[in-house]
Amino acid sequence: MEKKFVIITSSDLKFGDFLINHWLKSLLNNIDCKLVDIVILDYGLSEKQYRILLSKNVKIVKCIRDGCVNNLRYRDMLIF
Q1: SS3 for 66?
Q2: pTM of this prediction?
Q3: What is the pLDDT at residue 1?
């Protein structure tokens, strides 16, 4: 069985466009998608951002924003 890796990040509406237009674009140009899954922890992306990410074969995990995202992402990565 081939080993697979995962890259996990988080975003909300405010940073969703940067995530899509810069971070994800660069990442996809520099990794082998056969070996790596990309997971986005969603803390309030817009519907448009959500649809664009899904079209890029990114896994999206809806999360509850009940604190500071910088801290919550560690909790939600563990749950994932």
Answers
A1: coil
A2: 0.91
A3: 58
What tokens were used for 14? 């405010």
Distance CA 19, CA 44 (A): 13
User: Using an 8 Å Cβ cutoff, are 15 and 41 in contact?
Assistant: no
Inter-residue contact 20 to 49 (CB < 8 Å): yes
Topology of domain 5-79, CATH: Rossmann fold (3.40.50)
- Domain residue extents for the chain: 5-79
CA 48 to chain centre: 15
Q: What is the pLDDT of residues 26-71, one digit of tens each?
A: 999 999 989 999 999 999 999 999 999 999 999 999 999 999 999 9
